[in-house]
Design goal:
This protein is an alpha/beta fold. The protein has 15 helices and 19 strands. The strands form 5 sheets. Strands 1, 2, 8, 9, 10, 11 and 18 form a 7-stranded mixed sheet that branches.
Protein backbone atom coordinates (compact mmCIF):
# COMPACT_ATOMS: atom_id res chain seq x y z
CA UNK A 1 0.00 0.00 0.00
CA UNK A 2 1.05 3.62 -0.52
CA UNK A 3 1.89 5.75 2.50
CA UNK A 4 1.21 9.38 1.72
CA UNK A 5 2.64 12.29 3.69
CA UNK A 6 0.20 15.18 3.67
CA UNK A 7 0.24 18.14 6.02
CA UNK A 8 -1.81 20.78 4.23
CA UNK A 9 -5.22 21.70 5.63
CA UNK A 10 -8.23 20.41 3.63
CA UNK A 11 -6.07 18.39 1.27
CA UNK A 12 -7.63 14.95 1.02
CA UNK A 13 -6.49 11.73 -0.56
CA UNK A 14 -8.17 8.50 -1.60
CA UNK A 15 -6.30 5.27 -2.32
CA UNK A 16 -7.25 2.28 -4.44
CA UNK A 17 -5.68 -0.45 -6.54
CA UNK A 18 -7.56 0.70 -9.65
CA UNK A 19 -8.66 4.24 -10.51
CA UNK A 20 -11.23 4.51 -13.31
CA UNK A 21 -11.98 7.89 -14.87
CA UNK A 22 -15.41 7.79 -16.47
CA UNK A 23 -18.65 5.86 -15.99
CA UNK A 24 -19.63 4.82 -19.50
CA UNK A 25 -19.46 1.33 -20.96
CA UNK A 26 -15.63 1.31 -21.03
CA UNK A 27 -15.13 2.39 -17.41
CA UNK A 28 -17.95 0.36 -15.85
CA UNK A 29 -17.15 -2.89 -17.66
CA UNK A 30 -13.46 -2.52 -16.70
CA UNK A 31 -14.43 -1.89 -13.06
CA UNK A 32 -16.59 -5.02 -12.94
CA UNK A 33 -13.67 -7.14 -14.11
CA UNK A 34 -10.94 -5.39 -12.10
CA UNK A 35 -12.82 -5.52 -8.78
CA UNK A 36 -12.15 -9.24 -8.60
CA UNK A 37 -8.45 -8.46 -8.13
CA UNK A 38 -8.41 -5.29 -6.03
CA UNK A 39 -10.23 -2.18 -4.86
CA UNK A 40 -11.71 0.08 -7.53
CA UNK A 41 -12.57 3.78 -7.44
CA UNK A 42 -14.67 5.31 -10.21
CA UNK A 43 -14.48 9.09 -10.67
CA UNK A 44 -17.20 10.67 -12.79
CA UNK A 45 -17.88 14.37 -13.24
CA UNK A 46 -21.66 14.18 -13.03
CA UNK A 47 -23.95 11.31 -11.97
CA UNK A 48 -22.63 7.88 -12.89
CA UNK A 49 -25.57 7.44 -15.30
CA UNK A 50 -24.49 10.43 -17.41
CA UNK A 51 -22.25 9.26 -20.24
CA UNK A 52 -22.17 9.05 -24.03
CA UNK A 53 -23.07 5.36 -23.67
CA UNK A 54 -26.46 6.34 -22.28
CA UNK A 55 -27.31 8.24 -25.48
CA UNK A 56 -26.25 5.51 -27.92
CA UNK A 57 -29.42 4.61 -29.81
CA UNK A 58 -28.35 2.22 -32.55
CA UNK A 59 -26.69 -0.72 -30.83
CA UNK A 60 -23.65 -2.97 -30.81
CA UNK A 61 -22.34 -4.56 -33.99
CA UNK A 62 -21.56 -8.23 -33.53
CA UNK A 63 -21.66 -11.40 -35.61
CA UNK A 64 -24.68 -13.22 -34.18
CA UNK A 65 -26.48 -14.54 -37.29
CA UNK A 66 -25.86 -17.73 -39.27
CA UNK A 67 -25.57 -15.88 -42.58
CA UNK A 68 -22.93 -13.53 -41.18
CA UNK A 69 -19.23 -14.15 -40.49
CA UNK A 70 -16.25 -12.61 -38.74
CA UNK A 71 -14.56 -12.09 -42.10
CA UNK A 72 -17.51 -10.09 -43.42
CA UNK A 73 -17.60 -7.86 -40.33
CA UNK A 74 -13.84 -7.36 -40.56
CA UNK A 75 -14.13 -6.53 -44.26
CA UNK A 76 -16.89 -3.97 -43.65
CA UNK A 77 -14.90 -2.34 -40.83
CA UNK A 78 -11.72 -2.08 -42.87
CA UNK A 79 -13.54 -0.71 -45.94
CA UNK A 80 -15.20 1.98 -43.82
CA UNK A 81 -11.82 2.80 -42.21
CA UNK A 82 -10.37 3.96 -45.57
CA UNK A 83 -7.11 2.04 -45.40
CA UNK A 84 -6.02 2.97 -41.86
CA UNK A 85 -7.59 0.23 -39.73
CA UNK A 86 -5.14 -2.04 -37.92
CA UNK A 87 -6.34 -5.47 -39.05
CA UNK A 88 -5.06 -7.25 -35.93
CA UNK A 89 -7.09 -4.91 -33.71
CA UNK A 90 -10.18 -5.21 -35.91
CA UNK A 91 -10.02 -9.01 -35.90
CA UNK A 92 -9.54 -9.04 -32.14
CA UNK A 93 -12.63 -6.90 -31.54
CA UNK A 94 -14.86 -8.69 -34.04
CA UNK A 95 -13.97 -12.20 -32.87
CA UNK A 96 -14.48 -11.31 -29.19
CA UNK A 97 -17.79 -9.56 -29.83
CA UNK A 98 -20.27 -12.42 -29.27
CA UNK A 99 -18.79 -13.31 -25.87
CA UNK A 100 -19.04 -9.71 -24.69
CA UNK A 101 -22.68 -9.52 -25.85
CA UNK A 102 -23.49 -12.68 -23.92
CA UNK A 103 -21.86 -11.16 -20.81
CA UNK A 104 -24.13 -8.13 -21.06
CA UNK A 105 -27.17 -10.39 -21.33
CA UNK A 106 -26.00 -12.30 -18.25
CA UNK A 107 -25.72 -8.95 -16.41
CA UNK A 108 -29.36 -8.28 -17.19
CA UNK A 109 -29.30 -6.21 -20.38
CA UNK A 110 -32.50 -6.93 -22.28
CA UNK A 111 -32.04 -6.67 -26.02
CA UNK A 112 -34.89 -6.71 -28.53
CA UNK A 113 -35.83 -10.21 -29.69
CA UNK A 114 -37.31 -11.24 -33.04
CA UNK A 115 -38.56 -14.54 -31.65
CA UNK A 116 -38.08 -16.19 -28.30
CA UNK A 117 -34.32 -16.30 -27.59
CA UNK A 118 -33.51 -14.98 -31.09
CA UNK A 119 -32.01 -11.48 -31.24
CA UNK A 120 -33.61 -8.96 -33.58
CA UNK A 121 -30.59 -7.80 -35.55
CA UNK A 122 -30.63 -4.42 -37.27
CA UNK A 123 -28.55 -3.05 -40.13
CA UNK A 124 -26.74 0.27 -40.39
CA UNK A 125 -24.65 2.16 -42.93
CA UNK A 126 -21.55 0.34 -44.16
CA UNK A 127 -22.69 -3.08 -42.92
CA UNK A 128 -23.26 -5.83 -45.47
CA UNK A 129 -25.36 -7.91 -43.05
CA UNK A 130 -27.82 -7.45 -40.22
CA UNK A 131 -25.66 -7.59 -37.10
CA UNK A 132 -26.74 -4.69 -34.86
CA UNK A 133 -27.81 -5.96 -31.43
CA UNK A 134 -30.19 -3.37 -30.00
CA UNK A 135 -32.82 -2.57 -27.37
CA UNK A 136 -35.23 -0.82 -29.75
CA UNK A 137 -33.60 2.65 -29.87
CA UNK A 138 -32.69 2.77 -26.16
CA UNK A 139 -29.66 0.49 -26.48
CA UNK A 140 -27.13 2.65 -24.65
CA UNK A 141 -29.53 3.38 -21.81
CA UNK A 142 -30.26 -0.33 -21.40
CA UNK A 143 -26.58 -1.25 -21.29
CA UNK A 144 -25.65 1.61 -18.98
CA UNK A 145 -28.45 0.65 -16.60
CA UNK A 146 -27.38 -2.99 -16.42
CA UNK A 147 -23.73 -2.08 -15.81
CA UNK A 148 -24.52 0.51 -13.11
CA UNK A 149 -26.81 -1.91 -11.30
CA UNK A 150 -24.01 -4.49 -11.20
CA UNK A 151 -21.40 -1.94 -10.11
CA UNK A 152 -23.53 -0.59 -7.27
CA UNK A 153 -23.99 -4.10 -5.90
CA UNK A 154 -20.23 -4.60 -5.62
CA UNK A 155 -18.67 -3.65 -2.28
CA UNK A 156 -15.19 -3.47 -3.84
CA UNK A 157 -16.15 -0.53 -6.06
CA UNK A 158 -16.58 3.05 -4.83
CA UNK A 159 -18.13 5.72 -7.02
CA UNK A 160 -17.32 9.42 -6.67
CA UNK A 161 -19.92 11.45 -8.53
CA UNK A 162 -19.59 15.16 -9.31
CA UNK A 163 -15.79 14.89 -9.27
CA UNK A 164 -13.76 16.10 -12.24
CA UNK A 165 -10.12 15.21 -12.83
CA UNK A 166 -7.69 18.10 -13.25
CA UNK A 167 -4.45 16.34 -14.16
CA UNK A 168 -2.73 13.01 -13.84
CA UNK A 169 -0.15 12.63 -11.09
CA UNK A 170 3.00 11.22 -12.65
CA UNK A 171 6.41 10.25 -11.36
CA UNK A 172 7.97 12.91 -13.62
CA UNK A 173 5.75 15.50 -11.96
CA UNK A 174 7.27 14.55 -8.61
CA UNK A 175 10.83 13.99 -9.79
CA UNK A 176 12.17 16.69 -12.10
CA UNK A 177 14.96 14.48 -13.46
CA UNK A 178 12.46 12.11 -15.13
CA UNK A 179 11.16 13.00 -18.58
CA UNK A 180 7.40 13.35 -18.90
CA UNK A 181 6.09 10.38 -20.86
CA UNK A 182 9.52 8.75 -20.94
CA UNK A 183 10.20 5.08 -20.32
CA UNK A 184 10.79 5.69 -16.60
CA UNK A 185 7.61 7.70 -16.12
CA UNK A 186 4.48 6.24 -14.53
CA UNK A 187 1.03 7.39 -13.48
CA UNK A 188 0.29 7.37 -9.75
CA UNK A 189 -3.26 8.70 -9.84
CA UNK A 190 -4.85 12.09 -10.40
CA UNK A 191 -5.70 15.42 -8.83
CA UNK A 192 -9.49 15.71 -8.76
CA UNK A 193 -11.86 18.57 -7.99
CA UNK A 194 -14.84 17.79 -5.76
CA UNK A 195 -17.37 20.03 -7.51
CA UNK A 196 -19.78 20.17 -4.59
CA UNK A 197 -17.21 21.17 -1.96
CA UNK A 198 -14.76 23.06 -4.17
CA UNK A 199 -11.89 20.96 -2.79
CA UNK A 200 -9.03 19.40 -4.72
CA UNK A 201 -8.27 15.82 -3.70
CA UNK A 202 -5.60 13.35 -4.70
CA UNK A 203 -6.84 9.98 -5.92
CA UNK A 204 -3.86 7.63 -5.72
CA UNK A 205 -3.81 4.29 -7.47
CA UNK A 206 -1.56 1.54 -8.67
CA UNK A 207 -3.37 1.29 -12.01
CA UNK A 208 -5.26 4.13 -13.74
CA UNK A 209 -7.74 3.70 -16.60
CA UNK A 210 -8.90 6.66 -18.68
CA UNK A 211 -12.40 6.01 -19.97
CA UNK A 212 -13.59 9.59 -20.23
CA UNK A 213 -15.26 9.33 -23.63
CA UNK A 214 -15.10 11.79 -26.48
CA UNK A 215 -14.76 15.49 -27.18
CA UNK A 216 -17.81 16.52 -29.17
CA UNK A 217 -18.18 19.75 -27.18
CA UNK A 218 -15.03 21.03 -28.88
CA UNK A 219 -17.40 21.76 -31.79
CA UNK A 220 -20.39 24.08 -31.93
CA UNK A 221 -22.90 21.40 -32.96
CA UNK A 222 -22.67 17.90 -31.55
CA UNK A 223 -24.76 14.87 -30.71
CA UNK A 224 -22.65 14.37 -27.57
CA UNK A 225 -23.77 15.18 -24.03
CA UNK A 226 -22.30 18.22 -22.28
CA UNK A 227 -19.72 16.07 -20.47
CA UNK A 228 -17.83 15.29 -23.71
CA UNK A 229 -15.03 17.84 -23.34
CA UNK A 230 -12.00 15.69 -24.18
CA UNK A 231 -10.75 15.52 -20.58
CA UNK A 232 -8.91 12.21 -20.92
CA UNK A 233 -7.07 13.06 -24.13
CA UNK A 234 -6.04 16.46 -22.75
CA UNK A 235 -4.76 15.05 -19.44
CA UNK A 236 -2.89 12.22 -21.16
CA UNK A 237 -1.31 14.64 -23.66
CA UNK A 238 -0.09 16.92 -20.88
CA UNK A 239 1.36 13.86 -19.13
CA UNK A 240 3.34 12.84 -22.21
CA UNK A 241 1.14 10.07 -23.63
CA UNK A 242 1.14 9.50 -27.38
CA UNK A 243 -1.96 10.74 -29.23
CA UNK A 244 -2.93 9.63 -32.74
CA UNK A 245 -5.32 10.38 -35.62
CA UNK A 246 -7.22 13.22 -33.99
CA UNK A 247 -7.92 14.76 -37.39
CA UNK A 248 -10.54 12.07 -38.00
CA UNK A 249 -13.68 13.61 -36.49
CA UNK A 250 -16.85 11.74 -37.35
CA UNK A 251 -19.86 13.91 -38.06
CA UNK A 252 -23.09 11.97 -37.66
CA UNK A 253 -25.13 12.67 -40.79
CA UNK A 254 -28.52 12.91 -39.13
CA UNK A 255 -29.11 14.98 -36.03
CA UNK A 256 -32.54 16.56 -35.80
CA UNK A 257 -32.66 20.20 -36.89
CA UNK A 258 -34.89 21.99 -34.39
CA UNK A 259 -34.21 24.87 -31.97
CA UNK A 260 -35.47 22.83 -28.99
CA UNK A 261 -33.81 19.52 -29.87
CA UNK A 262 -30.21 20.30 -28.82
CA UNK A 263 -28.83 18.10 -31.65
CA UNK A 264 -30.91 15.04 -30.77
CA UNK A 265 -29.50 12.11 -32.71
CA UNK A 266 -31.56 10.26 -35.31
CA UNK A 267 -29.98 6.81 -35.27
CA UNK A 268 -28.27 5.40 -38.32
CA UNK A 269 -30.56 2.41 -37.82
CA UNK A 270 -33.40 4.54 -39.24
CA UNK A 271 -31.64 4.49 -42.61
CA UNK A 272 -30.79 0.84 -42.03
CA UNK A 273 -34.50 0.08 -41.85
CA UNK A 274 -35.25 1.98 -45.06
CA UNK A 275 -35.13 5.70 -44.25
CA UNK A 276 -34.41 7.90 -47.28
CA UNK A 277 -32.38 11.13 -47.35
CA UNK A 278 -34.01 13.89 -49.38
CA UNK A 279 -33.31 17.51 -50.26
CA UNK A 280 -35.84 20.18 -49.35
CA UNK A 281 -37.41 19.81 -52.82
CA UNK A 282 -37.99 16.11 -52.15
CA UNK A 283 -35.30 14.80 -54.48
CA UNK A 284 -32.91 12.05 -53.39
CA UNK A 285 -29.16 12.56 -53.87
CA UNK A 286 -27.08 9.86 -52.18
CA UNK A 287 -27.12 7.65 -55.27
CA UNK A 288 -24.74 10.22 -56.83
CA UNK A 289 -22.14 9.69 -54.13
CA UNK A 290 -21.99 5.96 -53.33
CA UNK A 291 -23.31 2.62 -54.63
CA UNK A 292 -24.89 1.92 -51.22
CA UNK A 293 -26.86 5.18 -51.43
CA UNK A 294 -28.33 6.13 -48.06
CA UNK A 295 -26.49 3.21 -46.45
CA UNK A 296 -23.04 4.52 -47.40
CA UNK A 297 -20.45 4.95 -44.61
CA UNK A 298 -20.88 8.01 -42.39
CA UNK A 299 -18.00 10.05 -43.78
CA UNK A 300 -19.42 9.89 -47.29
CA UNK A 301 -23.00 10.64 -46.20
CA UNK A 302 -22.01 13.59 -43.99
CA UNK A 303 -19.81 15.11 -46.70
CA UNK A 304 -22.54 14.65 -49.32
CA UNK A 305 -25.10 16.39 -47.09
CA UNK A 306 -22.64 19.22 -46.36
CA UNK A 307 -21.96 19.68 -50.09
CA UNK A 308 -25.65 19.68 -51.04
CA UNK A 309 -26.53 22.16 -48.27
CA UNK A 310 -23.75 24.54 -49.33
CA UNK A 311 -24.78 24.22 -52.97
CA UNK A 312 -28.43 25.01 -52.27
CA UNK A 313 -27.97 27.35 -49.31
CA UNK A 314 -30.40 25.26 -47.29
CA UNK A 315 -29.87 24.89 -43.55
CA UNK A 316 -30.98 21.25 -43.40
CA UNK A 317 -32.17 18.27 -45.43
CA UNK A 318 -34.77 15.60 -44.64
CA UNK A 319 -34.77 11.99 -43.50
CA UNK A 320 -38.00 10.41 -44.75
CA UNK A 321 -39.65 7.30 -43.27
CA UNK A 322 -43.23 8.14 -44.24
CA UNK A 323 -43.26 5.27 -46.75
CA UNK A 324 -42.82 2.77 -43.88
CA UNK A 325 -45.71 1.34 -41.86
CA UNK A 326 -46.52 3.57 -38.91
CA UNK A 327 -46.76 0.73 -36.39
CA UNK A 328 -43.36 -0.55 -37.47
CA UNK A 329 -41.75 2.86 -36.91
CA UNK A 330 -43.35 3.24 -33.48
CA UNK A 331 -42.24 -0.26 -32.40
CA UNK A 332 -38.67 -0.07 -33.73
CA UNK A 333 -37.93 3.57 -32.82
CA UNK A 334 -40.14 4.49 -29.83
CA UNK A 335 -37.63 6.97 -28.40
CA UNK A 336 -37.11 8.81 -31.69
CA UNK A 337 -40.86 8.78 -32.45
CA UNK A 338 -41.73 10.20 -29.02
CA UNK A 339 -39.01 12.87 -29.14
CA UNK A 340 -39.96 14.06 -32.62
CA UNK A 341 -43.66 14.09 -31.69
CA UNK A 342 -42.84 16.33 -28.72
CA UNK A 343 -41.34 18.78 -31.23
CA UNK A 344 -44.43 18.70 -33.44
CA UNK A 345 -43.02 16.21 -35.95
CA UNK A 346 -45.03 13.02 -36.54
CA UNK A 347 -42.40 10.99 -38.39
CA UNK A 348 -45.03 8.56 -39.71
CA UNK A 349 -46.57 11.45 -41.67
CA UNK A 350 -43.79 14.00 -42.27
CA UNK A 351 -40.04 13.85 -42.97
CA UNK A 352 -37.53 14.68 -40.23
CA UNK A 353 -35.36 17.81 -40.70
CA UNK A 354 -31.73 16.78 -40.11
CA UNK A 355 -28.16 18.14 -40.27
CA UNK A 356 -24.72 16.63 -39.61
CA UNK A 357 -23.21 17.17 -36.15
CA UNK A 358 -19.97 16.17 -34.45
CA UNK A 359 -20.40 12.66 -33.13
CA UNK A 360 -17.24 10.63 -32.55
CA UNK A 361 -13.46 10.98 -32.53
CA UNK A 362 -11.66 8.09 -34.22
CA UNK A 363 -8.29 9.08 -32.75
CA UNK A 364 -7.18 9.33 -29.15
CA UNK A 365 -4.63 8.04 -26.65
CA UNK A 366 -2.46 5.42 -28.33
CA UNK A 367 -2.76 1.97 -26.74
CA UNK A 368 -1.57 -1.52 -27.51
CA UNK A 369 -3.92 -4.48 -27.90
CA UNK A 370 -4.37 -4.59 -24.12
CA UNK A 371 -5.31 -0.95 -23.57
CA UNK A 372 -1.81 -0.01 -22.34
CA UNK A 373 -0.42 3.44 -23.13
CA UNK A 374 3.25 4.41 -23.45
CA UNK A 375 3.23 5.56 -19.79
CA UNK A 376 3.49 2.82 -17.21
CA UNK A 377 0.37 2.00 -15.20
CA UNK A 378 -1.83 4.10 -17.48
CA UNK A 379 -4.50 2.39 -19.57
CA UNK A 380 -7.21 3.78 -21.83
CA UNK A 381 -10.40 2.33 -23.29
CA UNK A 382 -13.42 3.50 -25.25
CA UNK A 383 -13.66 6.66 -27.33
CA UNK A 384 -10.78 8.30 -25.46
CA UNK A 385 -8.39 5.69 -26.86
CA UNK A 386 -6.79 4.97 -30.21
CA UNK A 387 -6.57 1.20 -30.74
CA UNK A 388 -6.40 1.17 -34.53
CA UNK A 389 -9.87 -0.37 -34.91
CA UNK A 390 -11.65 2.57 -36.55
CA UNK A 391 -9.01 3.82 -38.98
CA UNK A 392 -10.03 6.99 -40.79
CA UNK A 393 -13.77 6.43 -40.27
CA UNK A 394 -15.63 4.35 -37.71
CA UNK A 395 -18.13 1.78 -38.93
CA UNK A 396 -21.52 2.33 -37.25
CA UNK A 397 -22.06 0.57 -33.89
CA UNK A 398 -18.46 -0.62 -33.59
CA UNK A 399 -17.71 1.81 -30.74
CA UNK A 400 -19.55 0.06 -27.90
CA UNK A 401 -18.10 -3.24 -29.11
CA UNK A 402 -14.54 -1.88 -29.06
CA UNK A 403 -15.01 -0.50 -25.54
CA UNK A 404 -16.26 -3.84 -24.19
CA UNK A 405 -13.49 -5.89 -25.77
CA UNK A 406 -10.60 -3.60 -24.82
CA UNK A 407 -11.84 -2.99 -21.27
CA UNK A 408 -12.02 -6.73 -20.78
CA UNK A 409 -8.48 -7.23 -22.06
CA UNK A 410 -7.16 -4.23 -20.12
CA UNK A 411 -8.66 -5.51 -16.86
CA UNK A 412 -7.06 -8.93 -17.29
CA UNK A 413 -3.59 -7.51 -18.02
CA UNK A 414 -3.88 -4.78 -15.37
CA UNK A 415 -4.67 -7.46 -12.78
CA UNK A 416 -1.40 -9.21 -13.62
CA UNK A 417 0.51 -5.93 -13.48
CA UNK A 418 -1.05 -5.13 -10.11
CA UNK A 419 0.49 -8.25 -8.59
CA UNK A 420 3.94 -7.15 -9.74
CA UNK A 421 3.76 -3.63 -8.27
CA UNK A 422 5.72 -3.43 -5.01
CA UNK A 423 4.59 -1.54 -1.95
CA UNK A 424 5.89 2.01 -2.21
CA UNK A 425 6.36 5.06 -0.07
CA UNK A 426 5.37 8.09 -2.09
CA UNK A 427 5.10 11.70 -1.02
CA UNK A 428 2.42 13.48 -3.02
CA UNK A 429 2.55 17.27 -2.81
CA UNK A 430 -0.77 18.91 -2.05
CA UNK A 431 -2.58 20.90 -4.68
CA UNK A 432 -1.01 24.33 -4.46
CA UNK A 433 -3.25 27.29 -5.32
CA UNK A 434 -0.30 29.67 -5.03
CA UNK A 435 -1.52 33.26 -5.34
CA UNK A 436 -4.70 32.32 -7.19
CA UNK A 437 -7.88 34.15 -6.24
CA UNK A 438 -11.57 33.69 -6.97
CA UNK A 439 -12.47 34.99 -10.39
CA UNK A 440 -15.08 37.67 -10.78
CA UNK A 441 -14.94 37.40 -14.58
CA UNK A 442 -16.53 34.03 -15.39
CA UNK A 443 -17.73 35.59 -18.64
CA UNK A 444 -14.14 35.13 -19.90
CA UNK A 445 -14.53 31.37 -19.61
CA UNK A 446 -17.86 31.26 -21.42
CA UNK A 447 -16.69 33.61 -24.18
CA UNK A 448 -13.49 31.64 -24.81
CA UNK A 449 -15.46 28.39 -24.83
CA UNK A 450 -17.87 29.76 -27.43
CA UNK A 451 -15.06 31.17 -29.58
CA UNK A 452 -13.15 27.86 -29.64
CA UNK A 453 -16.24 25.91 -30.66
CA UNK A 454 -17.06 28.35 -33.46
CA UNK A 455 -13.47 28.32 -34.74
CA UNK A 456 -13.51 24.52 -34.87
CA UNK A 457 -16.91 24.35 -36.58
CA UNK A 458 -16.10 26.99 -39.18
CA UNK A 459 -12.49 26.10 -39.99
CA UNK A 460 -11.87 22.48 -38.90
CA UNK A 461 -15.20 20.92 -39.80
CA UNK A 462 -16.42 18.44 -42.42
CA UNK A 463 -14.48 20.20 -45.22
CA UNK A 464 -11.10 21.87 -44.52
CA UNK A 465 -8.39 23.81 -46.33
CA UNK A 466 -4.84 24.87 -45.55
CA UNK A 467 -5.99 28.46 -45.20
CA UNK A 468 -8.77 27.56 -42.78
CA UNK A 469 -6.49 25.39 -40.66
CA UNK A 470 -3.80 28.09 -40.43
CA UNK A 471 -6.41 30.65 -39.46
CA UNK A 472 -7.77 28.32 -36.77
CA UNK A 473 -4.27 27.67 -35.41
CA UNK A 474 -3.42 31.39 -35.17
CA UNK A 475 -6.60 32.21 -33.30
CA UNK A 476 -6.37 29.19 -31.03
CA UNK A 477 -2.76 29.98 -30.06
CA UNK A 478 -3.95 33.34 -28.70
CA UNK A 479 -6.77 31.68 -26.77
CA UNK A 480 -4.42 29.04 -25.34
CA UNK A 481 -2.22 31.77 -23.88
CA UNK A 482 -5.22 33.55 -22.38
CA UNK A 483 -6.53 30.33 -20.86
CA UNK A 484 -3.11 29.42 -19.49
CA UNK A 485 -2.85 32.80 -17.76
CA UNK A 486 -6.39 32.52 -16.44
CA UNK A 487 -5.75 28.96 -15.19
CA UNK A 488 -2.77 30.02 -13.05
CA UNK A 489 -4.26 33.28 -11.76
CA UNK A 490 -7.63 32.08 -10.54
CA UNK A 491 -8.89 29.32 -8.26
CA UNK A 492 -9.87 26.33 -10.30
CA UNK A 493 -13.48 25.55 -11.20
CA UNK A 494 -15.15 22.80 -13.21
CA UNK A 495 -15.85 25.21 -16.08
CA UNK A 496 -12.21 26.29 -16.20
CA UNK A 497 -10.99 22.68 -16.23
CA UNK A 498 -13.27 21.88 -19.17
CA UNK A 499 -12.28 25.06 -21.04
CA UNK A 500 -8.60 24.19 -20.65
CA UNK A 501 -9.28 20.68 -21.93
CA UNK A 502 -11.33 21.63 -25.00
CA UNK A 503 -8.64 24.17 -25.93
CA UNK A 504 -5.95 21.49 -25.64
CA UNK A 505 -7.94 18.98 -27.69
CA UNK A 506 -8.81 21.59 -30.32
CA UNK A 507 -5.10 22.33 -30.70
CA UNK A 508 -4.32 18.61 -31.08
CA UNK A 509 -7.01 18.21 -33.75
CA UNK A 510 -5.65 21.17 -35.71
CA UNK A 511 -2.05 19.92 -35.42
CA UNK A 512 -3.04 16.48 -36.76
CA UNK A 513 -5.15 17.98 -39.56
CA UNK A 514 -2.28 20.23 -40.67
CA UNK A 515 0.12 17.28 -40.75
CA UNK A 516 -1.98 15.11 -43.07
CA UNK A 517 -1.43 16.21 -46.68
CA UNK A 518 -4.25 14.24 -48.30
CA UNK A 519 -7.99 13.57 -48.02
CA UNK A 520 -8.98 10.27 -46.43
CA UNK A 521 -12.06 9.11 -44.59
CA UNK A 522 -13.27 11.79 -42.20
CA UNK A 523 -10.46 14.22 -43.07
CA UNK A 524 -11.20 16.15 -46.27
CA UNK A 525 -8.88 18.98 -47.32
CA UNK A 526 -9.78 20.80 -50.55
CA UNK A 527 -6.08 21.58 -51.11
CA UNK A 528 -5.27 17.84 -51.10
CA UNK A 529 -8.50 16.31 -52.45
CA UNK A 530 -7.01 12.92 -53.33
CA UNK A 531 -6.16 9.97 -51.11
CA UNK A 532 -2.41 9.34 -51.07
CA UNK A 533 -1.63 5.72 -50.16
CA UNK A 534 2.05 6.08 -51.06
CA UNK A 535 2.88 8.77 -48.50
CA UNK A 536 -0.04 8.87 -46.06
CA UNK A 537 -1.28 5.36 -45.44
CA UNK A 538 -0.10 5.75 -41.87
CA UNK A 539 -1.28 7.10 -38.54
CA UNK A 540 -0.73 10.70 -37.46
CA UNK A 541 1.03 10.50 -34.11
CA UNK A 542 1.84 13.35 -31.72
Amino acid sequence: MYRIEISVHRFMETRSDFLVMGSGIAGLSFALKACKYGSVVIVTKRSCEESSTKYAQGGIASVMAEDDSYDLHIKDTIEAGAGLCHEDAVRLVVENGPDRIRELIELGAKFTLRDEDVLDLGREGGHSKRRIVHATDFTGEEIEGALIKAVKKNNNIRIYENHIAIDLITKSRLESDIKSGGKDDMVLGAYVLDKNKGEVKSFLSKITLLATGGAGKVYLYTSNPDIATGDGVAMAYRAGAKIANMEFIQFHPTCIYHPQAKSFLISEAVRGEGGILRLKDGNTFMEKYHPMGCLAPRDIVARAIDFEMKKSGDDHIYLDVTHMEGYRIRERFPNIYKKCLSLGIDITKMPIPVVPATHYICGGIVTDLYGKTNIRRLYASGEVSFTGVHGANRLASNSLLEALVFSNRAANVAAKELREIPSEEITIPPWDIGNAVDSDESVVVSNNWDEIRRIMWNYVGIVRSNKRLKRAKRRLDILLEEIKEYYWNFIITSDLIELRNIATVADIIIQCAMMRKESRGLHYNIDYPQRDDINWRKDTIL
